């Protein structure tokens, strides 16, 4: 069914009826047939994972105390054609940072080179090795060996504990397909991924949600009642830490809170923004009321294309050169920062925009707006204080000529500084507004190109 019909159906149907699994079985099975790895694929992943781990064991020496495969491929929770193999090298706590970095890079590079693969160094809190061998993607990451709720030394130290917790929790449970369905559903909505560009659901968060609710449909059914600031505690947490049901957990000011079973002071859903949570709530309702495969396959792109099939407002894009070797998790927050700073200025000068967006490719950062109008009258109405607020009135008439009373307020007409949106943006790129706008280090709009009639969508 076409997604436009789905929109109409959603608003015509009333309160959600009790779920009948048979209404969804055929659609979900069709999706699973597309996304479930084949047995051959699983075997090839297992064989190569064992080989690379065996090689790492051959070349790694003290102070590596453990080598563990983590991630969705280690837990049979990956989608078809997801051949990511994540291997963590656990070092003793006493290992100094330099030794951990140097040993991790040496071991990772040597292991990948042995299989005639291509390797390179990536940087998070500390460097790690990524690589490709045939159709397998590898991350070999050094970390410190810690126990649950023990203070971490580096940000990645929890990951092996996440893996241990999930494997232990999955015993006697068959949740792999439900996890795959949730991941594919979120991918279809464009909200899968905890990177700062996506601000969506991580793979680990998906697994915890399925573990909590016992299945894909059960989760979507509960989501009907969610609101921002929803808080979720897994039942296993109460058992692991011997807590009472009324335990007072640490409070987080996030759109969704899911307590990390291995660190109760951490919110697994911290990266998820409110808009993407609300998309999940909204489209979960739509799917349950009118199930369709369309939700799982580029649904967000179809919505964007549909919305663009309309009369457009005034489009403008700033094109800013992207510095080399600056990762997306640095670029995107800075794009958001400068765009919000510009948005504040736009509102001050009465330029209303319908939407804005930012996107970066390899060479360029794009900041885009769609405005209602691009030109305003020469004058604007400035509304001052109520006439009975004497100090405020005195100050207002001192700074404004041709004042008058409108309603209960003293007002004045002022000549606009900017009546054309292009002139305002020219002052931005010429650096004339540096004292007003925050210019980030890596996304500086000075000397940017102004593209009229263009809006760059995020992909």
How many distinct folded domains?
4
Weakly predicted, low-confidence segments: 1-16
The biggest beta sheet is recorded as: 5 strands, mixed
Please, what is the average pLDDT?
A: 93
CATH topology of the largest domain: Poly(a)-polymerase, middle domain
What sort of overall outline do the alpha carbons produce when their principal axes are compared? Answer: globular
| CATH architecture label of the largest domain | Orthogonal Bundle
The total strand number stands at 15
Which strand order does the major sheet show?
1-2-5-4-3
The first-level CATH class of the largest domain is given as Mainly Alpha
What's the number of helices? 14
Order of helices and strands: HHHEEHEEEHHHHEHEEHHEHEEEHEEHE
**CATH homologous superfamily of the largest domain - what is it?**
CCA tRNA nucleotidyltransferase, domain 2
Structural class determined from secondary elements = alpha+beta
What percent strand? 15-25%
Task: Give a short summary of the structure.
The protein has 459 residues and is α+β, with helices and mostly antiparallel strands. It has 14 helices and 15 strands.
Architecture overview:
With 459 residues, the chain is of the alpha+beta class. It folds into four domains: 3-35 and 173-302, CCA tRNA nucleotidyltransferase, domain 2 (Poly(a)-polymerase, middle domain, Orthogonal Bundle), CATH 1.10.1410; 40-149, Beta Polymerase, domain 2 (2-Layer Sandwich), CATH 3.30.460.10; 311-376 and 417-452, Alpha-Beta Plaits, CATH 3.30.70; 379-415, Alpha-Beta Plaits. It contains 14 helices and 15 strands. The strands form four sheets. The chain has a five-stranded mixed β-sheet with strand order 1-2-5-4-3, with helices on both faces. A four-stranded antiparallel β-sheet has the order 10-11-9-15, covered by helices on one side. Strands 6-7-8 form a three-stranded mixed β-sheet, with helices on one face. Helix 2 (22-35) crosses helix 6 (176-189), helix 3 (39-59) packs across helix 4 and helix 6 crosses helix 7. The longest helix is centred in the N-terminal third of the chain and has 21 residues, at 39-59. The protein is globular. 29% of the residues are buried. Residues 1-16 have low confidence and may be disordered.
């Amino acid at each position: 069914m076409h997604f436009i019909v789905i929109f109409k159906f959603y608003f015509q149907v009333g309160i959600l009826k009790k779920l009948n699994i048979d209404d969804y079985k055929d659609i979900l099975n069709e999706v699973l047939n597309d996304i479930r790895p084949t047995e051959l694929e699983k075997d090839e992943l297992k064989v190569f994972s064992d080989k690379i781990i065996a090689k790492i064991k051959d070349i790694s020496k003290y102070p590596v105390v453990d080598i563990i495969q983590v991630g969705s491929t280690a837990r049979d929770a990956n989608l078809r054609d997801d051949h990511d193999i994540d291997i963590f090298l656990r070092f003793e706590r006493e290992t100094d940072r330099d030794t951990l970095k140097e040993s991790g890079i040496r071991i990772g590079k040597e292991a990948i080179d042995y299989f005639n693969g291509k390797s390179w160094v990536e940087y998070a809190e500390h460097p790690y090795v990524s690589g490709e061998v045939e159709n397998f993607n590898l991350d070999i990451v050094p970390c410190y060996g810690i126990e649950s709720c023990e203070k971490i030394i580096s940000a990645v130290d929890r990951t092996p504990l996440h893996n241990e917790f999930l494997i232990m929790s999955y015993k006697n449970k068959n949740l792999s397909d439900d996890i795959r369905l949730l991941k594919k559903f979120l991918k279809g909505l464009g909200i899968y991924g905890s990177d700062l560009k996506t601000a969506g659901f991580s793979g680990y968060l998906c697994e915890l949600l399925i573990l909590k609710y016992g299945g894909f449909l059960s989760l979507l059914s509960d989501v009907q009642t969610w609101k921002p600031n929803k808080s979720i505690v897994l039942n296993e947490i109460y058992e692991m830490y011997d807590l009472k049901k009324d335990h007072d957990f640490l409070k987080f000011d996030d759109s969704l809170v899911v307590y990390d079973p291995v660190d109760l002071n951490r919110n697994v859903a911290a990266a998820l923004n409110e808009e993407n949570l609300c998309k999940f709530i909204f489209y979960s309702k739509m799917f349950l009321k009118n199930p369709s495969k369309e939700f799982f396959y580029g649904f967000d792109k179809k919505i964007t294309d549909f919305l663009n099939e309309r009369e457009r407002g005034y489009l403008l894009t700033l094109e800013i050169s992207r510095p080399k070797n600056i990762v997306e998790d640095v670029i995107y927050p800075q794009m958001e920062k400068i765009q919000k700073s510009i948005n504040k200025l736009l509102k001050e000068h009465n330029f209303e925009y319908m939407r804005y967006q930012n996107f970066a490719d390899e060479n360029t950062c794009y900041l885009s707006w769609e405005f209602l109008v691009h030109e305003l009258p020469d004058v604007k109405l400035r509304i001052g204080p109520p006439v009975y607020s004497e100090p405020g009135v005195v100050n207002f008439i001192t700074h404004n000529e041709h004042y008058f009373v409108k309603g209960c307020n003293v007002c004045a007409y002022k000549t606009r500084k900017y009546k054309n949106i292009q002139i305002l943006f020219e002052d931005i790129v010429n650096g004339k507004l540096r004292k007003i706008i925050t210019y980030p280090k890596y996304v500086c709009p000075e000397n940017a190109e102004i593209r009229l009639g263009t809006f760059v969508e995020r992909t």
